[in-house]
Write a structure and sequence with these properties.
heterodimer; A: 117 residues; mainly beta; 4-stranded antiparallel beta sheet; globular; B: 113 residues; 6-stranded mixed beta sheet
Chain lengths: 117, 113
């Protein structure tokens, strides 16, 4: 059973370019979460999505950042016009769907390390 | 609002010695508590979790943690450290009415041969 798959593992962009990070949840999971880890810090929640819906985006920067989780295909975290401060590791996690599963843990991918030149 | 404090950003113990990593939380409702481990350039792996029931929780790799409501703590322990335990450890909390995890800043564990 494949785990949470993130690609690319490493992404290098120049300032002003766009970064697209992909996340395929575990099979059977339809809840996806994105977190950002800055150097020497813990993970910070960004956004929580279910299929075709953004449930909680309270951790997303107001500008340049967007996320989607379409009916088909992976979840995408998009960062437009990247700046040096966007350099971080971005982690995706997933959990099962359905009621009564709120006690389920989130399963994490290996992350995408974004570097801005 | 919920928060997590991990005392000690770096902890070093000798191989075979007791490992104790501290975690205190604040939460306005009964929390769900988690410990994750992160090896270099990898994602987070769940060590153990507390949701309800028994307050002493056993996890993988010989780790365990005890939920103490009166102390708002969820410290992680292992009786005998192994070299392979060297990693970064994160404590996290989630409220029952909220899906997102709130993480501590992590503790880097070094094992001395």
């Amino acid at each position: 059973n494949a785990g949470v798959m993130q690609n690319p593992r490493h992404l290098v962009r120049r300032r002003g370019q766009e970064a697209r990070l992909r996340c395929s949840p575990m099979k059977g999971h339809s809840h996806v979460y994105w977190y950002r880890q800055l150097p020497e810090e813990g993970l910070k929640f960004m956004v929580y999505l279910q299929k075709e819906n953004i449930i909680d985006e309270s951790g997303m920067p107001k500008e340049r950042f967007s996320a989607e989780f379409p009916k088909e295909g992976p979840s995408i975290l998009r960062i437009q016009q990247v700046v040096r401060g966007d350099s971080a590791a971005y982690f995706c996690a997933s959990s099962p769907t359905g009621t009564g599963v709120r006690n389920q843990p989130q399963h994490f991918g290996d992350g995408t390390r974004l570097s801005i030149l | 609002a919920q928060s997590v404090t991990q005392l000690g950003s770096h902890v070093s113990v000798s191989e075979g010695a007791l490992v104790l990593l501290r975690c205190n939380y604040s939460s306005s409702v009964p929390p769900y508590l988690f410990w994750y481990v992160q090896y270099p350039n990898q994602g987070l792996q769940l060590l153990l979790k507390y949701t309800t029931g028994a307050t002493l929780v056993k996890g993988i790799n010989g780790f365990e943690a005890e939920f103490k409501k009166s102390e708002t703590s969820f410290h992680l322990t292992k009786p005998s450290a192994h070299m392979s335990d060297a990693a970064e450890y994160f404590c996290a909390v989630r409220n029952s009415g909220n899906e997102k995890l709130t993480f501590g800043t992590g503790t880097r564990l070094t094992i001395i041969p």
